[in-house]
Structure formats: structure tokens, C-alpha cells
Write a structure and sequence with these properties.
CATH superfamily of one domain: Golgi alpha-mannosidase II
CATH class of one domain: Mainly Beta
Distance between the termini: 73 Å
CATH architecture of one domain: Sandwich
Strand content: 15-25%
Helix content: 10-25%
Radius of gyration: 27 Å
Structural class: alpha/beta
CATH topology of one domain: Immunoglobulin-like
Largest sheet: 8 strands, parallel, barrel
């Protein structure tokens, strides 16, 4: 039998009072340990006949590390930890420590006598900011989502309908009599489930729920990579929220941030008196845009740390996928830097080779352990094959946000309709690259904050045109190939931009025009889910066909969406001007009656009601290179969906 070659960790005698095996140390130092959360941090256990907690922390440049907490009067050196060989890990067992104990690590560095108190990098519960301690806790919870977990591959794969509701939990909803208080995970559960079910979304994506010191960062400045933020409750409270969503057939995604971390003293930065998690050279280790540290992806222990964080949320919290934030900032060494402010790689290029290798390793491990989830890249450049498999030279993500589509489309919708005929390419360019990646079409939180205004505010024209334009935008979006994502509040049509310190303006739904917009988005979701032609080939060229993308003078687009089965298709026509297009002729693949499946101008959605009286008929008049054609009314600033009447339809007419 061939014996694995030994490492320094193999030669270390494992203490009796340790959770860490020699193999754990070896894999951690090698950069391939993806379940460190089972061993590192604080774990309630029984050792040597006593109940207490086992603590372990990575601080290779520390002279001494001790646990301080409310159980020892926060006294340094009272409960010292022992260095485990050459692993860099300090560990020890402290008897009589109970669940809920507050603690930190007191680190005395070998470097210039530096001393600091640090929160636990592997802590699973933290104090609410501005306090910075960690809590000894457990992850015991009785799940009731077994049916979802067994069948979730049906909801998460690329041929499934994925329409995601992006949520910032602290500002989604607040009580009218307590507008300054955020709701807890448990308080949000019932109304959020009810709303998502009513709206027809298939998934919820939470902005980062990992612990963060500054609420205004929305979670993107993470200090606790294994801790659900205590602002909204305990880890079990978050599990309850996810459990409730799953029991109601709703997938749950987490925004996860391995690209940078804040420089708060209690956090990961300068952890043991050295730049342990980050690069020492600020040209590689400090992010100028976000005033934060950048992980050192070339350090093997950092890889183990980040991989374990990703797997932790999928394993212990049953998340159905991770949206990985700011991937572009990881891929490029010169991201947001001027000449001389960055260091080229070993080949003289701008690519961050260590980060590329880490992302591949991350996706390989995630899909090995959880083949029924998705990793989703927020990547804003034309980096090739982000969502292509590793064996094809890709980064291995399952999906990628189409940021270019979002920006081009919103820029177009802001134009005065008179000028749109000169910018038709802003809409049609996307189809030149639409199937190079497995895309998600996002209308995200970043577009409705920091002075950018609300989606409603971005629409051109008067109040009527803005409402019609917003319905048109959503109809066009759901007709385009790609999975869907909308930030909370998109259904309300509020004029003011999002403010994380306030709840959404739910009172708008008492107004018929705003309720109409909500109803339109609901029917779009239900049609997207019900019609295989709209989702089955979201990520395949065979699922889309232009009918006419060149009618710039009238600012009209017509196209087909197709499913796998012959004859499974929908016709979508978009009129981007406030001028009705009467008797508009469209070439189609078959004759006979066509049902008007959806019309954004229907009265129930806030429109005028002008439409096609439920349907039109295609005759053998050739047009657009097709043997048949139909003539239809395209109402002003509207989107109309048609389907051959002899084929089954999953959605009502809406006209």
C-alpha cells in the first residue's frame, strides 16, 4: 500500500484536548481544507471529563495567544492557548465555558511588541455593533426543509425558471410605529414568504448577512465570515427564515464577499501583528475604492479559510447558492488603479493569477460537495468563460450577472423617446454576446442608490410615460434570454431611491397605478415560470431568434423565445415610443390564430386597455423572411406577448 508522504503536521503529537487532527493541520496549511468550521473557532465540547469550549485560532506570528472573555474577567494570559507545531494554530480547552459566553483572542505579536484583542475569525455569533466580541454558540437546529433539499436541483439548474427577488433585510419592511427598528429574521419570515409567493418569484437573494461592523455597508464590509449578523437575531433565527422559505418552495441565495474586508482593528486586518490575511504591499493588499484590505489568495491558509466560509453557508444554513461579489476586482491586479499603483504578475501581466486559481478551486469544491446549487459571479468585464466549466478553461461559475445589459438598457430607457431611434444598438448589441456566458439579467440595488435615483425616476417622460416605461422595461427584461433578478421595491414604482435606513414605501400599493405595476410584475413571473419557451433555453442560442431588430425608426423590437420542443415558442413585440403602432406587420413561423398572452398596456396593470382583443390571426402573407405574418396593435410604450392559440398557454390573456 502506498503511504502518503508526510508533512510537518504529521509529526506533531495530537493533544488529548484537541479537535484538530494532524490531517486537519496538513490540509489547512496545504490550502485544501474546506470544512474548517467543524474544528476552528470556539466549539462547545467535553474533554477530560469536563464541559467547556475548545478554542483555536490561526496566528503564526504571535508570541502568545490567550482567550479573554466574561468567563475570566477579560484577563490576558489567564487562559493561554498552545501553538500546535508549525501549523500556526494556537488552541486550547477552557472548562466551564457555556453557550453565550462573550470572548476575544488576546494576541501578543513577535513584531515590535504589538498587542491586540481580536474577534474570532471563525466565530459563528458576534455582538451587535458597535460592540465587537464573539459569542460561544452552537448551530443546533431542527430543519423541516427535507423535501426542498431533496428536489432543489429541479429549481436551481440552468433550464429551470430562476427569477430572484434581491433583498436588503434591514430595510425591506419596518413597522409603521417603529420606523427606526429593523425586523428580526423571525419577524421577516412570514411577511417575506407571503410576498414572494404572491409575486411569483422563485428565489430570494439576500445582500450579505455575514457580520459587518458598519450597517451602511449593507454587509459588503464583512468581518465575520462564519457569523450571521446579530442585528437580526441568532444563527438559529436565520435558519428559521431560510427553512420557512424552503418549505414554501422558494430558493435562497446569499451575497458573499471574498474580494475584500474592512480594516477595523478587531477584524482580520494585521491579525497577528503582520499582514496575515492580506498582502503587505498596499499595491496588492489595499483596495482604493472601498478603503479595505484585499485577501492574499496566494497564501494557502487564506484559501482554506475562504473555501470553508463558502461551504459553511451552503452546509450549515442550507443556502441554495452564492452570489460572489466584485469578481472583477479579484481578477485584475490593476482594478481601479493607475499606472505605478499595481504590481504585475510573474509574466508581466495584469491578471491576478492567484485569485484566478482560487476561484477555480472554490467552484470545483462547491460543486463537488453541492452539485445542486449555483455560484453566481458579479463580474463586470468581458473576462472570457466566467461561467464555463473548468475543463473548458473557464472559471467554473454556474451563472454570471450581465452588467453590460443592465447599464445599456437603463441608459436607453432614460433617453427621450424621440432620440431612441438613434440608439437601437444599445438594446440589440447584447445579443452579440448573450450566449457566451450563462447570464442573469439584473436590476440590482446598485442602480437605485447613491444619487442614481429609482427605476421609476430613470424612465423618460411624464408620470404616465414613466409608469408605462417601467412596465415596458420589465416586459422586455422577462422576454430576453437569461435568468432574472430585481431588487426589492421594483414592484412598487416608488419615486424616491432606496434608503437603507428606511423601509420600502408599501403604502404605494393602495394606489391603483402602483398596484397595477405590482400585478404586472406578478403576471410576468408567473408567465416566465409557466412557459417553458421563456426559461428552458435561457442560456442557449437555440432559445432566441430575432424577427426584426432593425426597425429603429419606429423603435420596435420583435423576437421569438423558444423551448426545446418543436412548436414551443412565444412572440414578443416591444414598442419603445409613446406612439401606438397600428396594423404593425410581423413575420411569424406559423399561421392561424395567435393569443395575446400578455399586454403591459392592459387596464389591470395601469395602462389604457388598448390591445388586440385577446388575439390576432396570422395569414400566408410572407414577411421578415417567414411564410406567415400577422398584424397587431402595439400600444405606446408597451410590451405584448403572443402565442399560437392551438398551443397550450400557462398564463391568462392580460388584455
Amino acid at each position: 500500500m502506498m503511504k502518503r508522504s508526510s508533512s510537518p503536521s504529521d509529526l506533531i503529537a495530537k493533544p488529548a484536548s484537541s479537535l484538530l487532527t494532524n490531517d486537519d493541520l496538513f490540509l489547512f496549511n496545504q490550502g485544501t481544507h474546506s470544512q474548517l468550521y467543524e474544528k476552528m473557532g470556539a466549539h462547545l465540547t467535553r474533554m477530560d471529563g469536563q464541559d467547556g469550549a475548545h478554542f483555536s485560532v490561526w496566528a503564526p506570528n504571535a508570541e502568545r495567544v490567550s482567550v479573554i472573555g466574561d468567563f475570566n474577567g477579560w484577563a490576558p494570559r489567564k487562559n493561554p492557548l498552545q501553538l500546535r507545531g508549525n501549523s500556526g494554530i494556537h488552541e486550547g480547552f477552557v472548562p466551564d465555558v457555556k453557550r453565550g459566553a462573550n470572548y476575544k483572542y488576546h494576541i501578543e505579536s513577535r513584531v515590535q511588541g504589538y498587542c491586540v484583542n481580536k474577534a474570532d475569525p471563525f466565530g459563528i455569533s458576534c455582538e451587535v455593533a458597535p460592540h465587537t466580541g464573539s459569542f460561544v454558540w452552537d448551530l443546533d437546529y431542527e430543519w423541516h426543509d427535507q423535501q426542498w433539499m431533496q428536489r432543489r436541483v429541479q429549481h436551481n439548474h440552468r433550464q429551470a425558471p430562476i427569477s430572484t427577488y434581491e433583498v436588503h433585510l434591514g430595510s425591506w419592511r419596518r413597522l409603521p410605529d417603529q420606523p427606526d427598528r429593523v425586523l428580526s429574521y423571525r419577524e421577516v419570515a412570514e411577511p417575506l414568504v407571503e410576498h414572494v409567493l404572491k409575486m411569483g418569484f422563485t428565489h430570494v437573494e439576500f445582500l450579505p448577512l455575514t457580520e459587518h461592523p458598519f450597517y451602511g455597508s449593507w454587509g459588503y464590509q464583512t468581518t465575520g465570515y462564519f457569523a450571521a449578523t446579530s442585528r437580526y437575531g441568532t444563527p438559529q433565527d436565520l435558519m428559521y427564515l431560510i427553512d420557512q422559505l424552503h418549505q414554501n418552495g422558494i430558493g435562497v441565495l446569499l451575497d458573499w464577499v471574498p474580494s475584500h474586508f474592512p480594516n477595523d482593528e478587531h477584524g482580520l486586518g494585521f491579525f497577528d501583528g503582520t499582514h496575515l490575511f492580506e498582502h503587505a504591499d498596499p499595491r496588492k493588499g489595499f483596495h482604493p475604492d472601498w478603503n479595505s484590505y484585499i485577501f492574499n489568495y496566494g497564501r494557502t491558509e487564506v484559501r482554506s479559510f475562504l473555501m470553508s466560509s463558502a461551504l459553511f453557508w451552503l452546509d450549515k444554513f442550507h443556502f441554495d447558492g452564492l452570489r460572489v461579489d466584485a469578481v472583477a476586482s479579484m481578477l485584475y491586479l490593476d482594478y481601479s488603479r493607475k499606472a505605478g499603483e499595481w504590481i504585475p504578475n510573474v509574466f508581466g501581466g495584469r491578471e491576478n493569477l492567484e485569485a484566478i486559481d482560487f476561484l477555480k478551486q472554490l467552484n470545483r469544491e462547491v460543486y463537488r460537495r453541492f452539485p445542486d446549487v449555483q455560484t453566481i459571479a458579479e463580474e463586470s468585464t468581458a473576462w472570457p468563460k466566467v461561467s464555463r466549466p473548468l475543463y473548458d478553461g473557464g472559471l467554473g461559475f454556474g451563472l454570471k450577472w450581465d452588467m453590460g445589459w443592465m447599464h445599456d438598457t437603463l441608459k436607453y430607457m432614460q433617453l427621450d423617446p424621440i432620440l431612441r431611434k438613434h440608439h437601437q444598438g444599445s438594446l440589440t448589441f447584447r445579443m452579440m454576446y448573450a450566449f457566451q456566458e450563462n447570464f442573469v439579467l439584473p436590476m440590482s440595488h446598485d442602480e437605485v442608490v447613491h444619487g442614481k435615483g429609482s427605476l421609476y425616476g430613470k424612465m423618460a417622460g411624464d408620470d404616465w410615460q414613466k409608469r408605462a416605461g417601467l412596465r415596458l422595461l420589465y416586459g422586455y427584461m422577462f422576454g430576453m434570454p437569461g435568468k432574472k433578478l430585481l431588487f426589492m421595491g421594483a414592484e412598487l414604482g416608488q419615486a424616491e431611491e432606496w434608503n437603507h435606513d428606511r423601509g420600502l414605501n408599501w403604502g404605494l400599493l393602495k394606489l391603483p397605478t402602483h398596484e397595477g405595476l405590482r400585478a404586472w410584475l406578478e403576471i410576468l413571473n408567473r408567465t416566465y415560470v409557466g412557459e417553458t419557451a421563456l426559461h428552458q433555453l435561457d442560456c442557449a442560442q437555440a432559445g432566441f431568434e430575432w424577427i426584426d431588430c432593425d426597425d429603429a425608426d419606429r423603435s420596435v423590437l420583435t423576437f421569438l423565445r423558444k423551448g426545446e420542443q418543436p412548436g414551443d415558442f412565444l412572440l414578443i413585440a416591444c414598442n419603445f415610443t409613446p406612439v401606438p403602432r397600428e396594423n404593425y406587420r410581423i413575420g411569424v413561423p406559423c399561421g392561424g390564430p395567435w393569443r395575446e398572452v400578455l399586454n403591459s398596456n392592459a387596464k389591470e396593470y395601469g395602462g389604457t386597455g388598448a390591445g388586440n382583443l385577446g388575439g390576432v390571426k396570422a395569414t400566408s402573407v410572407g414577411h421578415h423572411g417567414r411564410p406567415f405574418s400577422l398584424t397587431a396593435l402595439l400600444p405606446p410604450l408597451s410590451c405584448v406577448y403572443f402565442k399560437p392559440a392551438l398551443l397550450p398557454s400557462a398564463s391568462p390573456s392580460g388584455s
